[in-house]
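User: Hi! I'm working on a homework problem where we have to compare a predicted structure to a textbook description. Could you give me the structure for the chain below?
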Amino acid sequence: MSAPERIRGIEAPLPAGEHVRWQGSPSARAIAIHVFHLRKLALYFALLAAWRAAAAVGEPNPWAYFATGALALAVCLALLVAVLGAISVLCARTTVYAITDRRLVMRVGMVLPATVNIPLRRVESAGLKAYADGTGDVAITLDGTDRLAYFLLWPHARPWHYNPTHPALRCVPDPARVGEILRQAVAACAPGPLAVAPAPARTREPSPVPALASVP
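Assistant: Happy to help. Predicted structure tokens:
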């Protein structure tokens, strides 16, 4: 008799007969860019620097005026990048997503770890959003039986969807493959056939939402 399988980071083994189809973690770099928006922050500070340069034109010593402001902006940006970068790395290291043949498991929480178990029979559909860097989000729509708190899951939830909350596998590498594994797992639990959408191109724009299943 084979030993029961385990999900990385979770002490308790899976029940007998339950198998892991996929497990992984988000990309720290992708979290920094797409969750904490480091690129947008850098652009914001660049605009502030440009405004400082324009304001320096009327000053008696424009170069000194601009350099003083630019140095302060550079220090603030460096601190933000360091802090948000560290949080992104910690988030990636403490997060584990897993798909078994019975449920979706999310081990989340940087300070107080929590494990969220979502039975696959509760999954109605999933939305795939792919990014140009090869990562993407797989957001889950539930059947309404269970309610999950958005701020308990954040950032592992679809942005700006509070009622109901959509759990999401954020910034995972090869999201199309992860979405297909989830589709197959849900299909195995569903009583009928599933509509499968083509794999979306890797783009920064939201991709069409592939219907996974309608589970009674």
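For your comparison, note the following. Confidence is low (pLDDT under 50) at residues 192-216. Helices lie at 28-35, 38-55, 62-94, 150-153, 175-189. Good luck with the assignment!
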